# Entry
Amino acid sequence: MRKAIQRALSESTDGWNRADLERFLAVYQDGRDTTLITGGKVIQGLVAIRRYYARRFVSGKPGAAGTLAIDLSHVRRFGESHCLVIGRYRLAGAESGKTSRGLLTLIFQRGPAGWRIVSDHSS
# Structure
């Protein structure tokens, strides 16, 4: 389970770093109940999450949105289909030139497409 989640996040991170929005978002469960909490906002549904992140991918140039790295520190399974993931992210070299760091708490749900994020709280 941990390796599958790590692979899914690695694919997503690679999507971010290559300015490939759809690849970045593929780790999220497709649906209206998927939630992103960031910057004091609660964003509900994959369509709204896509719209939120699309602003960062406007240029379509790899690296324009910065280089994202995620380090997992804790993975805990809840039953057969849910998992809590706690870690840290680092976003370096975005257009502002600043590096931002923060914590993330993810809830993954396992379904036919594999492990997908249903709740993302990144601060």
Summary: The first strand starts at residue 35 and ends at 38. The beta strands are 35-38, 41-44, 67-78, 82-92, 100-111, 114-122.
